[in-house]
Design goal:
single chain; alpha+beta; 6-stranded antiparallel beta sheet; 11 helices; elongated
């Protein structure tokens, strides 16, 4: 990784920390194409821990522990994310919604449509998805992801639209947020707002108060300018709520204050 990328990663991490203040580490995500080496300092659960980690779990570990993690075919035991990330080929049972019927969908017809519209990479395109805190990444990312509350995600949206205007458009199926965070962002080449799925809440420890903002790495400079520009414009976090003005105190307090003021008068 060249010095310019290192410097940009640090600048982005510093800016998100200053202007957004997320509770967990903002993340850099890179898809590792077939045959490309895993970046230095990145742990692979099946090799390093003799464990199998799914994608949302790996995201949770990276943003809470601060570790750099890569997971691939030998790691991911969630068949849905293994198919979505192209680590395994879909079979007929998957395509007919086998995993969704009775859980997410009423019948096979609905489940088939749900699976058909899930974001996916072509099988065999990538060997691993690599996730690390921005400040500790040893690779140039494809995607930046920031978990935060709705106000913090709003700040990231404001920053992303500062120079271009318009709107951010996202799709959600209420599950497989790992695919929406990574694959949707890469395929569309646009920033997204993502709703954490049930799996991310169970295995990745996403909280009820959290959402996710994502963007392609090539938008980092724009978002940096947007964070600074919107801050100067008065859009800030924590939100500077309206607190000025004379408040109304309870009547007993008003009566007591009147007595105190009376005591101030000269005898």
């Amino acid at each position: 990784m060249d010095e310019q990328t290192v410097a940009k990663l640090k600048k982005l991490d510093d800016a998100i920390g200053r202007y957004v203040r997320p509770d967990t580490f903002p993340l850099a995500v890179r898809m590792i194409p077939h045959g490309e080496a895993i970046p230095d300092g990145v742990k692979v659960p099946s090799r390093n821990f003799n464990e199998n980690w799914i994608v949302c779990q790996s995201i949770g570990v990276a943003r809470r522990y601060g570790w750099a993690i890569a997971v691939g075919k030998d790691d991911v035991i969630c068949p849905l994310s293994a198919i979505a990330f192209g680590f395994r080929k879909p079979n007929d049972a998957y395509l007919k919604g086998f995993a969704a019927v009775g859980m997410y969908c009423e019948d096979e017809s609905a489940a088939t449509k749900l699976e058909a519209q899930t974001w996916k990479f072509a099988p065999g395109t990538y060997d691993y998805v690599c996730i690390a805190p921005i400040a500790r990444a040893t690779f140039e990312p494809d995607v930046i992801a920031v978990y935060g509350n709705s106000a913090q995600v709003m700040r990231m949206v404001n920053a992303a639209l500062f120079k271009r205007g318009g709107r951010i458009e996202s799709t959600t199926g209420g599950r497989l947020d790992c695919a929406e965070i990574v694959i949707q962002t890469i395929v569309t080449g646009e920033p997204k707002v993502v709703l954490p799925c049930n799996g991310d809440r169970v295995f990745g420890m996403a909280q009820d108060t959290e959402m996710v903002f994502t963007m392609p790495w090539n938008r980092a400079d724009e978002v940096l300018e947007g964070l600074e520009g919107t801050q100067k414009g008065g859009v800030r976090y924590p939100i500077p709520v309206a607190m000025r003005g004379t408040v109304t105190m309870p009547k007993h307090y008003q009566d007591l204050l009147a007595m105190l003021k009376k005591d101030d008068q000269p005898a």
